[in-house]
Design a protein that fits this description.
The structure is a single chain. The chain is an alpha/beta fold. It folds into 2 domains: 186 residues, Glycogen Phosphorylase B (Rossmann fold), CATH 3.40.50; 188 residues, Rossmann fold (3-Layer(aba) Sandwich). 42% of the residues lie in helices and 16% in strands. The strands form 2 sheets. A 7-stranded parallel sheet has the order 3-2-1-4-5-6-7, sandwiched between helices. It has a 6-stranded parallel sheet with strand order 10-9-8-11-12-13, with helices on both faces. α11 links the parallel β12 and β13.
Amino acid sequence: MSSNINVLQVIPKLGYGGAETGCYDIAHYLPENNCKSFIVTSGGELTKFINKKKVKLIRLPVHSKNPLLIFINSIILIGIILFFNISIVHARSRAPAWSCLFATKITKRKFVTTFHGTYNFSGRLKKFYNSVMVRSDLIIAGSNFIFSHIKENYYNYLKSKKKFLVIFRGINIDYFDPSTKLETDEKNLLKEWEIKKEKKIILVPGRLTQWKGQELLIEAINLVKIELGYEAFHVVILGSDQGRNLYKKKLVRLTEQYRLTNQIKFINHCKDMALAYQISDIIISPSIEPEAFGRVAVEAQSMEKLIIASNIGGSNETIINEKTGFLFESGNANSLSEKIIRAITMDETSINLIGKEGRKNIIKKFNVEKMCFSTYSEYKRLLN
């Protein structure tokens, strides 16, 4: 049966986010298991890395929420499904999922969705729009937190015959491996960022948006400064504002207000995230709303780095508190500052032990091979 599986994944854009990298990883895993792999997307930076010999890439404006375009996309998808004899259509976002739903109903093919986030459902219309993600034959939740969220908020759409399960996202543990990084590359990145290694380097990865908690982070860093002084640390807030200029200006003003301009740097982008983790001592994920999964926490642990994250959402599942990292009370700057001070003043032996335990945790539960194998196994079960 496995040799006959042709899988079409549909995703708005192939960027560097968790949903996108998961799509990319599975697309390249399938051909190694005698499956044919297809991706429909509107574009994105990851498209240039797709192995065209293994994966067929088709461009369609599936990022659009325009109802007319969603309908037109569904008609084109019907043609793609029939022409390439697609067995399974796997949608990873709401707008393309509507097109996939219509197309799979007409062609009578299996439909899979992965629920990657909690999605805003402030009104009935919005909730109905989101509900397409639970109208498939197989619903995959990226964490137990997302699984519980779906059961709690979309129970009306969950029928007993639907398959509904958790497949944790996975990361490439060979890429996020501290033993593979070169010292010369580390020195070059430190030079590029104009940072000296004598101080503890605190890295805060994530796009600049209010719910990611950078404002709370700056408040906490001010408390750390009061306790330990200016000379104890550097902070790198690494992420794009993605057009949110006002929010970034607010963060810069707050940095100036607390006289932290020499301690806090804003870096827009880093092409080698593993290297960014490698040169850092402490990684922080200060989100004030739940992370569906929390990729930063997983990547940091894989790099044997001490991670501090808020105690909500996926972080509760990916971090073993006090063993592979520290959880702080969400939204509480005092709680975060206490964890940062503890991390900065901790002895090297304890820090290294946490790092080793963190990598073991990720290899066991969150590696990309496990995610791909689990997804592939569910594809096969769906067709049997």
